Amino acid sequence: MKLILKQDVNNVGHKDDVVTVKDGYGRNFLIPQGYGSVATESALKVHAETMKQRAHKEAKIRGEASAMAKKLDGLTVKVAAKTSTTGKIFGSVTNVQLAEAVSALGFEVERKNITIKSDTIKEVGTYQAKVKLYKDIAVEISFEVYSE
After folding, report:
1. What angle do CA 11, 12, 13 make, to 5 degrees?
2. CA 115 to each of CA 21, 23, 136, 143: distance values in angstroms, whole numbers, following the listed order
3. What ranges make up the beta strands (E) of 1-148?
4. Residues 41-93: tens digit of each pLDDT
5. CATH homologous superfamily of domain 70-147?
């Protein structure tokens, strides 16, 4: 079954992609949830015209994301956490705290676009995270967790 996606769906595609999925997945999940619509001939023609009009807007967004990626590349972010005397963190450092630290430096990044490489961060130290800025533009940043 061919569908036109109305929004991003993990492991399927991005908004406005024409994808082929299994009939049951499309009919029973994607269409009822509003994630996609059936790709008929007329819908594909309308979609093609819409995509032509959006091409220049996407180029602008891609350029901004590339510029931000260049600025973020090699950046070290410092995240404060409450710790015990042995260096163990009370709780853990999450992508929410990392997003706040990055936005404090002047870069607006949504928390859902940050993936921390380690499973859980329970100690003071330096770690890596992946920041997704656009569909295929991502940058790795390092962040240092220190005691407050």
Report:
1. 110
2. 27, 32, 15, 12
3. 2-5, 18-20, 36-38, 76-81, 114-116, 125-132, 138-147
4. 999 999 999 888 888 888 899 999 999 999 988 888 999 999 988 888 988 88
5. Ribosomal protein L9, C-terminal domain (3.10.430.100)
